[in-house]
Write a structure and sequence with these properties.
The complex is a heterodimer of chains A (about 325) and B (about 300). Chain A has about 325 residues and is an all-alpha fold. Chain A is about 70% helix and about 0% strand. In chain B, β2 and β3 form a beta hairpin. The longest helix of chain B has about 30 residues. The chains are: A mainly alpha (about 325), B mainly alpha (about 300). Chains A and B meet through α5, α10 and α12 of A and α4, α9 and α11 of B.
Amino acid sequence: MPRPLLLLLAALAVSIAISAASAHLDPYFLDVAMGVGIAIILAVSLNLVNGHTGQFSLGHAGFMAVGAYLSSAVTLFLGPSLLGADGGGPLGQGLLFAGALACGGACAACAGLLIGLPSLRLKGDYLALVTLGFGEIIRVIFQNVEALGGALGLIGMPPYTTFGWIYGCAALAVYTVACLVNSTYGRGFLATRDDEIAAEAVGLDTTRYKIVAFVTGAFFAGVAGGLFAHFKLAIDPRGFDFTRSIEIVVMVILGGMGRTAGVIAAAILLTLLPEILRPVAEYRMILYSLLLVVLMLLRPQGLFHRGAKGVRP
Amino acid sequence: MTEFLQQLLNGLSLGAIYALIALGYTMVYGVLRFINFAHSDVFMIGAFAGYYLGQRVPAGTLAGGLAVMAGAMVICAVLGMAIERLAYRPLRGAPTLNVLITAIGVSLFLQYTGQLIFGATPRTFPQLFPAARLSIGPLSVSSNQLLVIAVALVLMIALQLIVFRTRIGTAMRAVSLNPNAARLVGVNNDVVISFTFGLGSALAAAGGILYAMNYPSIDPLMGVMPGLKAFVAAILGGIGNIPGAALGGLLLGTVETFVGGSAFSTYKDAIAFAILILILLLRPAGLLGRFVAEKV
């Protein structure tokens, strides 16, 4: 069996084992760890777009919102009739949740395709703005759909998300991104990032690569949104605004754009940071922003970048 | 018909403010080719400078109001130049994305520092200028609205004169056309860029005060939405093009006001982004911009 697949299976087994033992763990620790897991999924999926493919997307929170709303709609509105009167038992609930997550992810991926097709013709800061614009439009739409709670948001989702679900999905996201990028096909992502004109000149369909990256990233953002909704049990449109997208972007930049291990480390660090900084919570965002500026001035290649590896100059 | 004219007037006064902010974006883009995300927060600082200075002058007088506006413009011009010097100049020549990320960082820094210093709760903006309601035929016009349009008009004419009639304006246009060639003929690019930031930030401060007068509640995050929309206005008119920014701002303000008055009023915030996406897809160079082919 190839090594990445073994690692994936090991990670799945470990997360299910920890999940089974979660009743004995400290609830605070568990809560923080689950937040970290969701951040990892978001950061790793955005890394495929921003890091590996070199397209600057600022609308990741929008896809997360699509996933969160759609999967909640499945469990809230379809769930009761699908599970029947007895509640469906653990297996039925698990299947329902998996279906809901897949549905949320698929809808986010469709949104990604819809947004990606026209906007990926643009480059650099224009693309950043268009994705930002789409993210805001998605938020305004959810704010106006009364069936999905309007500005008040949705509440009362069943608490399906467990440690195992989050880290299982995180392992799956890391595995998918790693396999995609390290395959022969996936070298095209890096080529698109490193020199788009040269990549086109040797016959790569760079637009196609960008869209594949965008849709895959959106899918996992949608899954993360679904997990988030069934973890926090309440969502509202304001929770998926521009600031949330920026947070994810910061993780990717801090981790060194395109380094999966670095990005995971940054996701962990930045999610734990507010917990550590709780006594000085009001300075947290100031520190965040200063970090961003100082990083760009002193270490534009990211905090966890170990020098030249592979094709990166 | 009366309602149409009334909405048109509301739209124009909102659009004039967007135009003032958009000018700053477009000028910076002209000389440096990047989006200064922090511009919207300079706008916010301008409004707060007006708030604090406004407490020191007698309320509701024309002279006092103009003095406050001039003061806020100077403060923001200094702030804009400081931001350029500290955050952007060291990155001259770095990849666009790095500069963009830095700009987002500066923007967040100003927002959250603002929340810490000014507090997050919205405040009521003082009445700086004398207020009256005038009736022109069936129309009811507040003097603030007329003032907004008048001040914006004066500032835009002044800007036009600076850019086209002075030495530094000529240098600005030269840098925007070709920075290297400008340096060859003896233009000091750093001075020009610094001046551009100062000028743009001063206009943003004026915009901030005018905005706060018409929507009289200010908070540290107030700049985000008007800033984004003003940027859309800059792109709509053709980024880097000064008359384009003014036209784009007026158009966007008018469209937004009409949508706000229609049955789709809750989608008001989305309309600007829809326009942005349409214009980038159909005519990326903007209404007045010129399309430049990319050289390999």
